[in-house]
Amino acid sequence: MPNGPQTNNSNPFLGTSAGASLGYRYMIYEPLVMMNGIRPSEKGQPWLATAWEWTDNFKKLTFTIRDKVTWSDGKPLTADDVAYTFDLMKKTQALNVNAIPFKGISVKGTNQVELTFDASQFVNQTKILNQFVIPKHIWSTVKDPSTWTDENPVGSGPYTLKSFTSGAVTLTRRSSYWKDLPKVSELRYTSYNDNSAQTTALANGASEWSFVFMPNYKQLFINKDAAHNKLWFPSGLGIHGLWLNTARKPLDNPALRRAINLVVDRQAIFIQAESTLYPEIENPTGIPLPAGDPYLAPDYKGAKLAVDVDKAKKELTDGGFSYDGDTLKDPSGKPVKITLADPSGWSDYLTGLSIIKDGLKKIGISAEVRTQTVDAWTSDVNNGNFDAVLHWTNSGATPYDMYENIMDGALLQPVGKAAAGGNFGRFKSDDATNALKQYANASDDATRTDALNKLQKIMVDQVPMVPTSAAPIGAEYSTKHWTGWPDESNPYGPPQPTQPNSLDVVLHLQPSS
User: Fold this and answer.
1) What is the pLDDT of residue 84?
2) Among 82, 36, 104, which residue's Cα sits nearest to residue 499?
3) For residue 392, which of 75, 230, 344, 467 sits 20 to 30 Å off, Cα-Cα?
4) Range scoring the smallest mean pLDDT among 30-44, 52-66, 308-322
């Protein structure tokens, strides 16, 4: 990945860890069920759980845990480990990144785990089923699991950590594994300093698998070895966008947010920043089309986003802002200044921020683009230490996951406290939170549709986040040495190497000759 120097941290719960940044956590720690990220409505593959059953309108879930699975230190994986994993998440908010509202967690018999909830978990099914499992005998001895660096990870997956440096991590195949051993004996993760270095590595064969934005991808990558260099970017219902910190003035004013939304040149971002690789966002609800067509509220069918500087200025003056020459002043009389931040080396995002900066200038806003390390940026995003950042959202079977990630009050944290599960912009709306609850607890489609229509109106009227493009779950890869990659003809999972499905991808790989 093009994520720069890494620190020795393999804690699978932490989005800032090297294991998460590079994706190798999923080679060591396995899920209960292997869900397909681009086919979320599919049931999923039995993995550490051989069976699972939802009852009581998704308020109770019973797992049957697979026998004869061992941890990499040789000890058996049991139902106690599964129950401990969920119990640790329940007790440690920082590890419960999806804010799953666990009620009861218990072991039934010798190989079953029962989870209960006060409310329906219809919308959280994938997140719960996809949960990886950790060994109780290791983690129960850790003083603070939320800060533990897990430098010698013990997992149930087919790989163990062989070596770690700030620029490269090597995993090696272990001799015993409950499934057939993968054909790949060693996985070498290199963390390049930026997108350009990563692109060069892909083009010359030094890297065989990555998710990286590259301009002119046909010229820079595909044409270097057209027989083997491949790229597949399937999309979901997630998006990229400009997250605005609504806990900071004057970004707490929806008039300013609506105005910003009106001067973002998405066509320029699509062509200049993303080289037409990411699908455009056209609808003001932020819902990607055509995948989201069935979910669009009647009020927004056929609606299109467009740059409109005059309309943006009217939003501002109607909202209490004023102009001193070409300088926009907030209702208190202060010039409006915004810092736009993203990691150095993320060329697509940084080009996007430059385009956004130019748009903001047209309405009198002075904007500065600031770059950071990935770790520092991730920490600032989680803790609300920013004005505006380009960032992605969650994706799911419906637009619910995207909207929950953007505006759920259940994820809201005060500035300074990590909001790792979402709502990075600290958006507070009882109407949005209630509509999300309505959708999540509904027992029929009509109720869900009504709730989703409400959420679309809030997104359009209050702009908690400015959508810029759809978010594909893609990757570049080479078939020179390995075949079996997912693609349009065999979409068994997204190809992105930092996704939970990456383990399934590796298990599918076969030597090309």
Assistant:
1) 98
2) 36
3) 230
4) 30-44
Contact 28, 160 (CB under 8 A): yes
State how far the Cα of 191 lies from the Cα of 168, in Å rounded to an integer.
6
Contact 438, 404 (CB under 8 A): no
Decide: residue 474, CB within 10 A, 0-12 exposed, 13-18 middle, 19+ buried: buried
Q: Express each pLDDT in 40-83 by its tens digit.
A: 778 899 999 999 999 998 999 999 999 999 999 999 999 999 99
Element (H, E) at 189: strand 186-190
Helix 254-263 and helix 445-462, axial crossing angle in degrees, nearest 10: 90
Find the Cα–Cα–Cα–Cα dihedral 5, 10, 14, 17, rounded to 10°: 0
Q: Specify burial of residue 387 (Cβ count, 10 A radius: 0-12, 13-18, 19+).
A: middle
Tokens (6 digits) for 272: 């200049």
Q: Which of 31-40, 81-90, 183-192, 194-203 has the lowest mean pLDDT?
A: 31-40
Axis crossing angle, helix 195-204 with helix 347-361, rounded to the nearest 10: 140
Q: State pLDDT tens for residues 137-153.
A: 999 999 999 999 999 99
- Residues with Cβ within 8 Å of 513's Cβ and at least 6 positions away in sequence, in order, are none
Facing residues of 340 across strands? 369, 388
Average pLDDT rounded to a whole number, residues 442-470? 95
Closest CA to 208 of 484, 4, 500: 484
Enter the tokens of residue 179: 């499934």
Determine the 3-state secondary structure of 80 from DSSP.
helix
Bridge partners, 392 (sequence order):
240
